[in-house]
Amino acid sequence: MQIRRSMLQAVGCGLIVLLITSALAGNQRAVSTVFAVVVKRIETKSASLNQQLTLRTINDVTVAGMVVIPSGSIIVGHVVEFAVKGKGSQQSVLAIVIDKAVVEGEREVPLEAIIAAVAASQDGSLTSDPTYGMMHSNEPKMVAPGPSSSPRSGELSPSSKVESTATVGTARINGGMRKDLLLNDQSQGAIGFPGLSLSWRLDTPPAVTVFSSSKEIRLDAGTQVLLRMAPPQRVVERE
């Protein structure tokens, strides 16, 4: 049984590498993409092994017509290697593995993905506005009063107000973010990061995205990210 499971995992990993390699070659068939923004700055100066990278998606990931990862979900990765130029290294290096998406705060979707492109956040753009993160983090706390509270004639109920406010607010933010988006489905590499290059290790799983630069590497909050991945499917309930 263990041998069979290992064989299945190897076949699955091989398929993932093939899909991602095809994506890098420009073939978008059977490859899912998602745009996201960095939630908290990550940089080589303060990096540590297994340090978490947190992204928030700004578009839905759909598989077979069903939304698997909704906009506003969290994507989690971690640092597997780092180096600072001048400290035994000729370049600054930051290597990242993407692990999973956290959907609706409680369900986990395992991911096999690469960061295909990044773009520096623009001053004044909604992608770097903390309101986006604040709205999503506070939204679950907006609980309407009990059934005893009834609205006046012509007025929305408290729950409807909450739903309306959240829906309109999220739509405005997402719309603004897509408007300010510097990346597209075909993007690859780094925009607005002089000297920064991206490469990928796909020979053995998991897939690794490697940032290299002659300067310090720093991905600020609001940095735009394009991820390419094998179509996500399995959802795991968090304990």
In DSSP terms (H or I, runs of 4 or more residues), the helix count works out at 3
Identify low-pLDDT runs.
Answer: 1-16, 124-173
End-to-end separation: 26 Å
Helix content: 10-25%
Average pLDDT value? 75
Order of helices and strands: HEEEEEEEEEHHEEEEEE
- Give a count of the beta strands, DSSP E runs of length 2 or more: 15
Rg, rounded, reads 20 Å
Structural class category: alpha+beta
The major pleated sheet works out as:
11 strands, mixed
- Percent of sequence in beta strands: 25-35%
Shape: globular
Can you characterise this structure?
The chain is of the alpha+beta class and 239 residues long. 23% of the residues lie in helices and 33% in strands. It has 3 helices and 15 strands. A hairpin with a 6-residue loop joins strand 11 and strand 12. 29% of the residues are buried.
Task: Give structural attributes.
eleven-stranded mixed β-sheet; alpha+beta; disordered N terminus; 239 residues; single chain; two-stranded antiparallel ribbon; 33% strand
Walk me through the topology.
Elements: H1 2-24, E1 32-38, E2 42-43, E3 52-57, E4 61-63, E5 66-69, E6 74-83, E7 92-103, E8 107-110, E9 113-119, H2 131-138, H3 158-180, E10 189-191, E11 197-201, E12 208-213, E13 218-219, E14 224-229, E15 236-237
Question: Could you give a quick summary of the protein structure above?
Answer:
It is built from three helices and 15 strands. It is of the alpha+beta class and 239 residues long.
